[in-house]
Design brief:
The protein has a domain at 35-66. Helices cover 33% and strands 12% of the residues. The chain has two helices and two strands, in the order αβαβ. Strand 1, helix 2 and strand 2 form a beta-alpha-beta unit. It is extended and about 45 Å long.
Length: 66
């Protein structure tokens, strides 16, 4: 198959309809991600926490701080 340049791709998490179904379910049941908004100058500190497995939340960088 490589010689014919055939490429197979798949996803184990579903497609757009399944993703939308999960998003709708979360919104309906008020299930929100736990996040911590950080400024751009806190990025290195946040990365160190991720690498050291000390991060408690998903970090979201405030775009206005660039």
């Amino acid at each position: 198959m490589m010689n014919n340049r055939v490429n197979f791709n798949s996803s184990t998490i579903g497609g757009i309809p399944e993703t939308q179904e999960v998003m709708d379910y979360c919104a309906l049941n008020k299930i929100y991600p736990q996040i911590e908004i950080i400024s751009a100058n806190q990025l290195n500190e946040a990365w160190d926490k991720v690498v050291n497995k000390e991060a408690r939340y998903r970090y979201v960088i405030d775009g206005a701080s660039f």
